[in-house]
Amino acid sequence: MRMKILVTGGAGFIGSNFIRYVLKKHPDYEIVNLDALTYAGNLDNLRDAEEQAGSGPVSRYRFIKGDIGDAALVSRILADGIEAIVNFAAESHVDRSIDNAGVFIRTNVLGTQVLLEAALRLRVQRFIQISTDEVYGSLGATGKFVETTPLSPNSPYSASKASADLLARSYFETFNLPVIITRCSNNYGPFQFPEKLIPLFITNALSDQSLPLYGDGLNVRDWIHVEDHCCAIDLVLRHGRAGEVYNIGGNCEMTNREITRTILQELGKPETLIRFVKDRPGHDRRYAIDCSKLCQELGWAQKYDFKTGMHNTVTWYLDNREWWARVKSGEYMEFYKRWYGDR
Ligand code: NAD
Ligand code: TYD
Description:
The structure is a single chain. By secondary structure, this protein is an alpha/beta fold. The protein has a single domain (4-193, 223-251, 282-307), classed as 3-Layer(aba) Sandwich (Rossmann fold). The protein contains 13 helices and twelve strands. The chain has helices at residues 13-25, 47-53, 71-78, 94-99, 102-121, 156-175, 197-206, 226-239, 256-267, 292-298, 306-319, 321-327, 331-341, and strands spanning 3-8, 29-35, 61-65, 84-87, 126-132, 179-184, 186-188, 211-214, 220-225, 245-248, 253-255, 274-277. A seven-stranded parallel β-sheet has the order 3-2-1-4-5-6-10, with helices on both faces. It has a three-stranded mixed β-sheet with strand order 7-9-11. Strand 5 (126-132), helix 6 (156-175) and strand 6 form a beta-alpha-beta unit. The chain binds nicotinamide-adenine-dinucleotide and thymidine-5'-diphosphate (TYD).
């Protein structure tokens, strides 16, 4: 069965991996990628996908530069036969949301509402809202998030994502728009912008720069390889039930200290590079995900174990120094100096 999908935020980390995954897995699918190309959006992430999709009128892939908050543009794109939307577009970095929350509300909340409204009017058959486990807040030493765990976001980022989830839910309940929400844990893998823990620490270590570990470094995250996340989204897109939430997780809880040590060992760099710095305000202590619903209902199984996934990821950053050297410049360095300067 062919399908024409609007992927938003497809020039970012997960979106670009998802486009590559879908074009390869489903030779009959067409993708339109709407991305505003913020600091985190990078068309270099998609060069191989473009080649794979062919060019000219037969191409299965088209890029449109634009904002998900632009209602007229979104409606025009949807009117051209779009059957499903996968909404990745977002401001995605917690630290930036602490530094300046306004754009998180504009894109993550208002932008999502514009997409929902246009999807309703143009009768889109599927709307996948890509959310995060961070909407559930923080766990103590035991327990896991299930889909019915109450939302209790602690950062402006997670609050904006939780708001979008509630709006998405309301469009299902009120208007019967076939919305599905996915909530995934922390992703790692190729093309991740080097502001997030794993690529920041890999690239800093490669440049013999210090690794700024927040607080006591004992906060716990659940880690999943991005390709396993993409596989889960593809299953939800094709077989998920409208109105449902699906948790996605990697069954891999690690402290930030453990992650840091793994990176240093992979690269053969000394632990003296670690610098304990002032904690992130409102820093969630622990995330853990129960994704048995996804496994049982949709038959999802993870492909990557953490050791292999991390080895491949470190190798990718070693092999793609040009890619990250280019993005670790300009506006990014200004944020880096401002944020880490007085920590
Ligand atoms: P990212 O920051 O790498 O990419 C975001 C993309 O969205 C960029 O290409 C950017 O240009 C685009 N964008 C931003 N504002 C836009 C706008 N107004 N209109 C159109 N495009 C816009 O983010 P990511 O890590 O790939 O995350 C993608 C999605 O997955 C986000 O919704 C995030 O909340 C969610 N998520 C991420 C993780 C993770 O570990 N990275 C985990 C769970 C969920
Ligand atoms: P991050 O990659 O920003 O993802 P999130 O906050 O969305 O989970 O951070 C992952 C963990 O790493 C989190 O506990 C914060 C910590 N961290 C540091 O200790 N130092 C850093 O410089 C960064 C960016 C994150």
